[in-house]
């Protein structure tokens, strides 16, 4: 009998980046975004937290992109606030749903 397996990510991957506060080199993506708009141009960053000290860093997702050229579902995902229990990516020490 043939079985078809599907691989589905359960959380966001760890980000390898040096922390400026401590010696850690790993950040976990919180699943939250910061968005800044300037007229018709938009910037969006994915917020990531240091696994050791919790320092926040921004990972560029969109940079000076015309808002009309962004897929509506991507724009909605960047501007919608998710609650921690709503299926957002679990961080270290938090149980996966
Ligand atoms: Zn740190």
Class per helix and strand makeup: mainly beta
* Overall pLDDT score: 84
Helix content class: under 10%
Helix count from the secondary structure assignment: 1
* Major sheet attributes: 4 strands, antiparallel
Order of helices and strands: EEEEH
Strand order within the widest beta sheet? 1-2-3-4
Tell me the radius of gyration. 16 Å
Give the structure's gist in a few sentences.
With 97 residues, this protein is mainly beta. It has one helix at 72-79; strands at 14-16, 26-38, 41-50, 56-66.
Describe the structure.
β3 and β4 form a beta hairpin. The chain has a domain at 14-79. 8% of the residues lie in helices and 38% in strands. It starts with 13 loop residues before the first strand and ends in an 18-residue tail after the last helix. It has 97 residues and is mainly β. A four-stranded antiparallel β-sheet has the order 1-2-3-4, with no helix packed on it. The protein has one helix at residues 72-79; strands at residues 14-16, 26-38, 41-50, 56-66. It is flat and about 55 Å long. It contains one helix and four strands. The structure holds zinc ion.
């Amino acid at each position: 009998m043939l079985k078809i397996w599907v691989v589905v990510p359960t959380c966001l991957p760890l980000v390898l980046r040096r922390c400026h506060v401590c010696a850690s080199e790993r950040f976990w993506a919180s699943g939250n975004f910061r968005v800044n708009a300037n007229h018709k141009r938009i910037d969006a960053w994915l917020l990531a937290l240091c696994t050791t000290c919790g320092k926040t860093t921004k990972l560029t997702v969109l940079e000076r992109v015309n808002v009309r050229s962004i897929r509506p579902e991507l724009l909605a995902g960047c501007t919608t606030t998710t609650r921690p229990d709503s299926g957002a990516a679990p961080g270290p020490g938090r149980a996966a749903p």
